[in-house]
Write a structure and sequence with these properties.
Distance between the termini of chain B: 61 Å
Number of strands of chain B: 10
Low-confidence stretches of chain B: 1-9
Order of helices and strands of chain B: EEEHEEHEHHHEHEHEEHHH
Distance between the termini of chain A: 49 Å
Number of strands of chain A: 0
Oligomer: heterodimer
Radius of gyration of chain A: 21 Å
Mean pLDDT of chain A: 92
Structural class of chain B: alpha/beta
Largest sheet of chain B: 6 strands, mixed
Strand content of chain A: under 5%
Number of helices of chain A: 10
Helix content of chain B: 25-40%
Chain lengths: 260, 281
Amino acid sequence: MKSFIEGLGHGLIDSVAKLGYAARLFMLLLRNSGMAFARLRLTIAQIHFIGNYSLVIIVVSGLFVGFVLGLQGYNTLQRYGSEQALGLLVALSLVRELGPVVTALLFAGRAGTSITAEIGLMKAGEQLSAMEMMAVSPIARVLAPRFWAGAISMPLLAALFSAVGVFGGYIVGVVMIGVDDGAFWSQMQNGVDWLEDVGNGVIKSIVFGLAVTFIAVFEGYDSQPTPEGVSRATTRTVVSSSLAVLALDFILTALMFSKG
Amino acid sequence: MSIPASPEPAGQPFVAMQGVSFAYPTLTGALGRQILTGVDLQVKRGQLVALMGGSGSGKTTILRLLGGQVKPQAGTVLVDGQNVHALKSRELFELRRRMGMLFQFGALFTDMSVFENVAFPLREHTDLPEEAIRDLVLMKLNAVGLRGAQALMPSQVSGGMSRRIALARAIALDPQLIMYDEPFAGLDPISLGQTANLIRTLGDALGAASIIVTHDVEESLQIVDYVYFLAEGKIVAQGTPDEIRASEMPYVKQFVTGAPDGPVRFHYPAPEYAADLGLSR
């Protein structure tokens, strides 16, 4: 019993200490972000690496999610004779929820893991120590460009996901099932509000991008410098960032879309 | 080869540690195992000093303390007259520009070519034009005999080569203090001889204070000016290579002769063998 309580206490203290460490690293990251913008080449290289290489998975997933939304949406809507509203349903589902959330989850798996593994292996290979000893801050030179590249890439990828998803819904709904072309687009145009729907979706994707990329760089920087440590850190990135995205999504949705 | 310089410097030593004690702190602030206890050492400009001792004796930690990467709980670490741990981070970075460190496995940046690795400190800390950087990098690579390897990636070179490239990178800014962490570990005899010669000649050419952490006794005794022996975080012996070779101290003797058992035990502390196997009643 005593050891159980001791273990609980240790676990709690460790968690709080780690949270504090993460908060300090976040502040350091912000303070050391000058180089990421002053030498934009560093950040652009990371945007290419993180963003560009995530394109395939984002586009293909967006297309299939759009297909499924088209099918499911049509099945439900036609019961009430309102299949004309399919365009609206597909677009709202995507820009408000699925675009930012699914993109963030895919982004955590595709880009977050590679950021964590890269930084973790750099640490294990003493590359970060070597950089420090060369009077170059690894936070400014390695972490900050990756962090901002992820934060910039994420909203762009989410926008692309939603656009491709709408196109997928169009293919299934209009081209294959035969919903009226004009109704599909006009209902969407009338029903989707730029600020309320698209704007909030973009804010969500920016917040998710910051959260996922910060977790990825933190886990990499904090990883044990061993093969096992790096693999654990990579796993933690996926688990923590997925949970963070879903929890943040609930909070943001409650703040943004609750009426009254 | 010119040996020994006395540890008592004529002028101010470039590196001086006084009564340094250190244990790694944990995340919650508690201290871990004691790594160093009351360490005093000095290195002058142009002097090549070896830190010897078994694995886990705290040798590498001394280098980390000199570079300001970790902070001692007691004692002072002076480099070029500056107290490393009293410096603000900007001043510490200024000081580090005058230090070069060779890591055990080179620690080359794996996403950059050999050329870019050596150019890295120059690009980060100088505004030199591209042509000047190119000339400097080729000169440094030539000094370690690897000018021809400039276009290769770190994954394409052998362990010995990557250590020489890392050495070229460490001396890119002509440091006044060069630290070597196990430069001979895992090298074949030819690379080992080459690396040892390089360490001596580079230190002499730059007039730099050099510290080499090693357990390669024979090779290092041939090139160094002075030796400190560490055991369990304390300096247990020191002297010129000749004094070390002649030492009758059991610990040093065991180290120099490489005897498997002595003051440094072969077995990690354990309960009685028979009891552990369940044979004794």
